## 1
Amino acid sequence: MIISALRGGSGKTILSIGVIGAWKQQGKTVIPFKKGPDYIDAGWLALAAGQPCYNLDSFLLNQTQILKSFIRHATPSGISVVEGNRGLYDGIDLNGATSTAELSKLLGLPVILCLDCAKSTRTMAAVLLGCLHFDPDVSIQGVVLNRVAGSRHERIVRTSIEHHCGIPVIGAIPAMDSQFPERHMGLVPTLEHDWAAESVNAVSRVVKANLDLDRLEAIANRSLPVTAQEYPPKDQPKAQTVETPVTVRAEKPIIGIIRDSAFQFYYPENIEALVLAGAELVFLSPLTQQHLPDLDALYIGGGFPETHARVLAENTSFSSELKHLADCGLPIYAECGGLMYLGKEIILEDATYPMAGVLPIVFGLSPKPKGHGYTMVTVDRNNPFYPDGMEIRGHEFHYSWVASFEETADCKLVFYMKRGTGFMNSRDGVCYKNVLATYTHIHASGTPEWATALVRNAVAFRTKLRITNDGYTVILNS
């Protein structure tokens, strides 16, 4: 089933966490999915389910890729819960392309609407009636009343909806937002707090006490999701995939992934894609490690380096080794927060903090978003990862901005922004030797060339390098 709402901020994420957690506490297998470009909400859904949350974004992926991912990860014995984004019918054009409603029709899944009933009663029935008639092909099968003020409030709203709309009210819950304090990008990342698991448990208990979970499960069981026989749909291009590893050597290339509370924004599909392409993965952290392990490539995702700036700046042994390896040609792919860490400095209110210094960039931080939403870029300069002329779909969400950067022949911008803000001057993708760092986040299923390229570069780097006894890298045949 899909859990959606009338708008962002209606409580559907907290409801989704509670439903998933409650079912998990009952011993059920729940497979979480997230619609929309999102890492933080997906992290909470994954924590509640005890397994990865996969992304089904119809801007980043075409229909074939969405169907393939859903079929691959959903299990017949479990309950698949998809959390929508924004309002049910919100999309990027007049026809609602990329909306949660379109995803529900593609997957054949019923919709449960989370209605924010604060300071409203009978009007909620009128609003719901509008949603039912706006697109009759969207199967709205139930509603959950959120932020109800008491039993009388609940009774009026419930009676109005069931009488005028004929849609069952699955339950009514009080406001629970205090369980999940927010930061500027939404809910606080789970990796940052020890109390995350208890917050999930607390919300799960509230949901269990206020929702008819058996009725909710019955609605999910009535869905008619797509099957492998229906894939791919008509008139959809065949999805590009990487099923054959780039290398079949006994010794796999080692790709490091910086993953900790500073850098935690990774789609699980991206991690899986690197393994499928033939890589061995090693996870590391400049917050806790002084030195880098033996690597053939490095992937640095997004996150909040600004909140860990002091610790990152003080770990000079790690950053110095990283810069040395980058100068020697280590393939590095970085997104957003990773881009910031590769820069020269981050300027915050209290001080200026040196970063790895791989790229000659000084970053500032704004109180408001400097880039937010979907992106479309065209590759228009040579780089180690993408061919010229390739178009890439992604997304960006950053409060940092470029305070200082001067493009040179050795360090250039290789993306032209067709949509979005990017790095500066309608461009993105800073390329230096075998480093490519960008504000644009990609999804490996929608951009399958990415994993292939990173593993291919790792293999090439391994054949060029050897490590001497004193720990220095030496380029061979360069």
## 2
Amino acid sequence: MITKRIIPCLDVKNGRVVKGVNFEGISDVSSPVELAKYYSESGADELVFYDITASFEERKLFTDILREVASEIFIPLTVGGGINTIEDFDRVLKCGADKVSVNSGAIKNPSLISEAAKKYGNQCVVISADVKRVDGVFRVFSKGGRENTGMEAVSWIKRCVDMGAGEVVVNSIDTDGVKKGFDIEMLSAVLDAVDVPVIASGGAGGINDFVELFEKLPSIDAGLAASIFHFGEVTIQGLKDELYKNGINVRLN
């Protein structure tokens, strides 16, 4: 049985970790370097680092902070935000990232996925999809959830995987920061469409939400969360202990 991964997410704005609700109302949390080190030492399986305003502000990702984060941790690091070219992939990987997450850049130029997969391998390319229901249809949003692309989300994600994305992060805008549980319906639709690892993001409010995620969707690979970890509501170790008690296979320290 595949080990389920627990992944904290650092949403970084102006060099600080921030958190909002439904991608809005952003508030300051902590230093990304300090938090990254804490999670690496606390048993997190991986870490995700998003420069959340890079695409919207049409600038490159903060490489100085990224380098510092990468030097402090000993777990895989996925990095995203403002990834628009093969050069961006190259720069981020050279800063210490293990995988590169692309969203708005792939929407603007889908061939970026196949180019990156060819150059660095499928395992390096993560498609991150910000998805929201619009009139009952799952739609893909770009620029940090600000712009509705009009594209149907599941077919878009499948297309990205067909082009070479080796992993999918599904960010439910509807459940982001609401703490009422993961978007099981949305995740189930994506799992039915692709055969690469899928990471659930958006909605975790407590340990039971992770238990429900892995029990209801046995084929999901990982659960990602931010604020419940940042604010100490749930510890990585406490979460893993509870998952293990519920018969869910996790890596224990």
